[in-house]
Fold Cyclic diguanylate phosphodiesterase (EAL) domain protein.
Amino acid sequence: EAKQPGNRRYQFYIASIGAKSQEAFELEIQMRQALERQEFQLYYQPKVNLLTGQIEGAEALVRWNHPQRGIISPVEFIPLAEKTGLIVPLGEWVLRQACHQARVWQDQGIYPLRIAVNLSPRQFNQSNLTNFVVDILHETGLNPHYLELELTESTLVQNPESAIATLQTFKALGIRISIDDFGTGYSALSQLKKFPFDVLKIDRSFVCQLTEDSRDEAITTAILQMARSLKLKVVAEGVETLSQLNFLKGHQCDEIQGYWFSPPLSAEAFADLLSTGKKFPLLSS
Ligand code: C2E
Ligand code: MG
Ligand code: MG
Ligand code: MG
């Protein structure tokens, strides 16, 4: 009798692990088919220049339009894609689609727009990455100056020597490099400084408490000051409120991205936004 509750707990534990991996397994099989069935879709979130009020660029964010489950967030499937290696063909599709879309918008006479694409660690460590990016730029006809690649600190520090070489190649081509989710990694600034990059994206976790938590204000102010002296641009992600926006504007942040201006949009909705010429209201600072 005494043993039973523990036993049950144990069985429950096994069952829940089993259910979890079963679900992951099914998702993996479906993900393999999803590429062929064209179930992935890119959404675009504007990046707005805080001085001019103009949309300067867009971050391409992948969604999975699952036939039964509806739209699935990348938070749910990117880690699995990374683990299984499916991120390589998926990332290839994302890069091609994003560059193609940017070129189409340019051809339609919409002002030149910079497109940002996220690269996962596994993609970044592909030995043929730089050739592959060059091929896609040729294929889609996108000028490399309009491509931006977003990488996290942890991706870079895995293999610093080859990361530096890869970034130098990208930089020589005119591609812009951003450090995504800045401040959440464990890398020391002394280590980060050897990587040639152009932009720091302040992680949403600091931005969301701005004007509420003085520690986040201090961290954000410090990142902005440091970036200015290192001649880096700063983008704040996850800006949702006017007070966050005013704080960032007051501290000379270059660009913002967040629900306050616009959530990620389908290509059609994004083109509509561009054609209305929606400008960020230039607030008196
Ligand atoms: P990320 O690159 O840091 O992208 C920013 C995320 O913040 C996006 O989530 C975006 O929708 C969300 N966001 C933007 N503004 C706001 C805001 O004001 N409030 C809140 N609460 N959220 C905001 P999303 O689209 O779910 O993407 C999550 C992550 O998945 C991305 O984080 C990126 O790491 C990864 N991801 C998305 N697309 C791709 C892709 O094509 N390739 C790779 N390797 N990773 C991707
Ligand atoms: Mg990103
Ligand atoms: Mg980010
Ligand atoms: Mg993030």
About this structure: The chain is about 50% helix and 20% strand. The longest strand covers residues 55-66. The mean pLDDT is 89.
